[in-house]
């Protein structure tokens, strides 16, 4: 598999097949059932996604980080940190379908996240709630950052995630009657 880019905020790194170095041994986890394997892999994909997203993006807006740090407002800081986490680690991976055909199997994973276009539209449609001044001659807009954070935070808390993508992983049942991912 490769790298799957979802939305404008993060990429979900997929499992890459690579030969182990001479110092490593290649060990693939085995499972008694394909459903157990599917559940375990969904958790792993979720963790990979969150880790990769967090490594690529420390914050959705470092300038707002600075403002929040100076504001000395614990409620605002909490909302901002939670908004950051919700957007950076937004992807949810679940088992969508398990297909078992003899010794071959495949698992389809469903990846959910926020509809960033809908969120941008919502924030734009409600700009009057946080924009304090517009200077068209200079193309400048002044924003009440606290109101913006609250609006974004409330949106994220109330909005359900949407289906963004699926990913399929193939499994095989070995002679030991255990399932493992296809190498």
Task: Produce a short descriptive summary.
The chain has 183 residues and is an alpha+beta fold. It has five helices and eight strands. The chain has helices at 34-56, 62-71, 74-88, 116-125, 145-158, and strands at residues 3-6, 10-13, 92-101, 104-113, 131-135, 140-143, 162-173, 179-181.
Overview of this structure, please?
The protein is an alpha+beta fold and 183 residues long. It has five helices and eight strands; from the N terminus they run E-E-H-H-H-E-E-H-E-E-H-E-E. The chain has helices at 34-56, 62-71, 74-88, 116-125, 145-158, and strands spanning 3-6, 10-13, 92-101, 104-113, 131-135, 140-143, 162-173, 179-181. The strands form three sheets. A four-stranded antiparallel β-sheet has the order 3-4-7-8, covered by helices on one side. A hairpin with a 3-residue loop joins strand 1 and strand 2. Helix 3 (74-88) packs across helix 5 (145-158).
Top keywords for this entry?
alpha+beta, 8 strands, 183 residues, disordered N terminus, two-stranded antiparallel ribbon
Summarize the SSE layout with pairings.
Layout: E1 3-6, E2 10-13, H1 34-56, H2 62-71, H3 74-88, E3 92-101, E4 104-113, H4 116-125, E5 131-135, E6 140-143, H5 145-158, E7 162-173, E8 179-181
Antiparallel strand pairs: 1-2, 3-4, 4-7, 5-6, 7-8
Helix pairs in contact: 3-5
């Amino acid at each position: 598999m490769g790298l799957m880019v979802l939305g404008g905020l993060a990429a979900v790194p997929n499992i890459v097949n690579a030969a182990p170095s001479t110092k490593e041994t290649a060990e693939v986890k085995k499972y008694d059932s394909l459903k157990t394997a599917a559940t375990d892999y969904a958790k792993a994909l979720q963790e990979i996604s969150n880790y990769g997203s967090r490594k690529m993006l420390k914050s959705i807006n470092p300038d707002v980080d600075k403002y929040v740090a100076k504001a000395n407002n614990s409620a605002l800081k909490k909302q901002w940190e939670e908004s950051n986490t919700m957007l950076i680690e937004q992807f949810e991976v679940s088992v969508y379908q398990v297909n078992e055909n003899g010794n071959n199997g495949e698992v389809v994973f469903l990846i959910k996240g926020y509809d960033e276009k809908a969120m941008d539209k919502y924030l734009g449609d409600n700009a009057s709630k946080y924009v304090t001044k517009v200077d068209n001659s200079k193309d400048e807009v002044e924003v009440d950052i606290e109101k913006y954070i609250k609006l974004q935070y409330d949106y994220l808390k109330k909005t359900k995630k949407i289906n963004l993508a699926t990913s399929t992983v193939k499994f095989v049942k070995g002679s030991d009657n255990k399932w493992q991912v296809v190498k």
